[in-house]
Fold this protein.
Amino acid sequence: MRNAFKRYSIETRETPPKIKLPPKFLVKRYNNCMNIQECTVVCIYGVHRLNDDGTIAEPISELCRGCHLCVLACPKGAISVEINPEFLKLGNSYFTPDRMERIYFEAETGRVPVSGAGYGGLFAGRGFDSIWFDFSEIVRPTRDGIHGREYISTSIDIGRKLPYLKFDDNGALLSNIPKNIEVPIPMLLDAPCTVSKNLQLSVVKAAAKLDTFAIVRAEDFYEKLLSYTRWIIPRIKAEEIEKYTDLIDLSQIVEIDCHGGEDFKRLFEKVREINSSTLVSFRLPYNDKSATIAETLVDMRADIVHFYIDDKTVEQNPDYIVKAIRAIHLHLVDKGVRDQITFISSGGVAEASHIPKSILLGADAVAVGLAYHIALGCRVCYGENRLECLVEVGNGDVEWATQRIVNMMASWRDQLLEVLGGMGMREVRRLRGEVGRAMFYEELEAKVFGGDL
Ligand SMILES: [Zn+2]
């Protein structure tokens, strides 16, 4: 039991990127400019400024938000605002330039990005983008978690839960209550794709500051991480469990890296023999067998199942992750065992809204991967062009990298609070599997246009 109520808060600090993204807009002033200076008056973002001698300075494209007021205000038509072709080259069709820019803003400021002129994306996309939140409760402004008028909990419990409790005739509890670990956010940090000690340390320190967990490949563990084991889940290959008995002994949660054909029960017992109190998580790829594997894991009393899919596959087929999370959740609900296991999902998480979307589809928690790499400079290389990847965390950069990750996660938590507030929900635990709080494009389309025609 926790003895004192403590409101969870994340300390954010302005942390600019090392390498800026190319600006989205290019603002140009042509030589028919007559120094009329209307642009300096109308621009509220500071793109147009005066030099010390009173003449107009070169426009600062980085500050432009694309409102075009200066273009309209200039009587000479001497200004143009265009989308920067270099900006459009960023990322890919899933980790779009706009999403990357958002992550940069979140990682720099820790704040919620304000789109200003409304939602700028496509009306509906694929995968997570085909789901909308139902904010019908937005008329109740008291449920406002960010500004704290009413507390909204983003905590979840990791671990197995009993379907029911058994008591003896005198009312004494007979059941052994399995261990649960409460984390204040439904987000974990997955292992980084590039192996760099400083990057690994930054991720672990960020997890400690957020009071959540970082998943660390056992082979990447090194002595500086020892003081952070409280926030580390070692990820151990199924065939290497014996190699890491010390690490297993230190850990509250251990993740076993599996492919699907392993003898799960044997692996589970092996880990429990080394550390009888550690929670055991099975890391498995999402595939057609996921739902039945999850059921098997419930039957053998595993604590956690962590399904993952690589982001490249999600980019090619964004619908897959949506269907996969839902199928696993519903299968376990069908069997009446859903609450007995914690389901962590990884994959396709490119923006804050993908966290509540993963949860409403049926996951308990989400492990964040590529998004924090982008916050640190990765240009969506999928770990394939390691030599070209811009993620570089030098010895003096650990604090910088830690804070960028913490800022992004703080912003994502605030956005989660906004979603919960809009839905009138007081805790994220209730969001799990709650598709009634969402609208699915496919269903709406069928309803409106008659899908069976
Ligand atoms: Zn990269």
Notes: Residues 373, 378, 381, 389, 391 surround zinc ion (CB under 6 Å). The chain has two domains: 25-88, 156-446. The chain has 14 helices and 14 strands.
